[in-house]
Amino acid sequence: VGLGKKLFSTVLFGGTLATALYLKRRRRNEQSELFKDCVMLPRDENYAPNLYLYNYRGYVFPAMVIKSLPKVQTLKARPDDVFVVSFPKTGTTWVQEIVYLISTNLDFRSAAARNLEQRFPFLEYCYPGVSSIEKLPNARLIKSHLPHSLLPESVHTENPKSQVIHCCLGITNGMLKAFRLAYTCQTDCAYNCELINWTKLFCAVAYGPIWKHYLEWWEHRNDPNVLVVSYEELHKDVCNVIQRIALFLERPLRDDEVNAIAEHCRFTSMAANNAVNYEHWKKLGFVNLAEGDFMRKG
Predict the structure, then answer these.
(1) What's the CATH number where 267 sits?
(2) Distance between CA 203 and CA 207 in Å, rounded?
(3) What percent of the chain is modeled with pLDDT above 90?
């Protein structure tokens, strides 16, 4: 009996070890396949120590995004999907909140009940992940910072197509806002150095270069399922942009409804609104408290 137990334990241990080694080897092979078309960029000592950036198809992405791209490509776009796409810190949150209110017939109560990350999941981010987005009911609202060429192919090929709203910001302001985000955050993409170093590095920051991203989307500005709006337009005449977005989404609004959305989306209102101001990032340790808020000056 004792010999049988020893033999059983040995076989069990050996089988467990073999399985673990097999899974480790398979993950290594998958990683190798995933990164074979990428070029790792030289390390910048001012970035977080565990951040590695890669050049993929002319764009710069952290490893986390590279790992998500194969799954992103499998997403089956639906005709009633709405994507809000932008380079980071170029008006994304502002446009997302406008789109959410238009799409929900001005449901301010639900907008206040859940934070924007829950209402508008981030396509290529690990949370909640593509698998969770796939399970959402119809009329999905999805955020992304990807260029046109790296969105799921079905976004461009399905008929009827999903609707995509791209928001852009002047390159100089975009550079400054991206710097503030990287300097303020304490995530893997945190950057701890002076602005002059950032300007030299800007073509090689995550999701960059910004001008390549903008050019791709500008070339598709006349696609029937694409609307391009700018941060500057929002500042100049937010009511006009709200109406343009509403007409694009085939959800025309009355003047009083446009004004209600504009009031809700004023910078002072957004900055005080815990559902959109990312204050929860502070509790999660994502923000350097000494460096200010996610929303600073609008």
Answers:
(1) 3.40.50.300
(2) 9
(3) 51
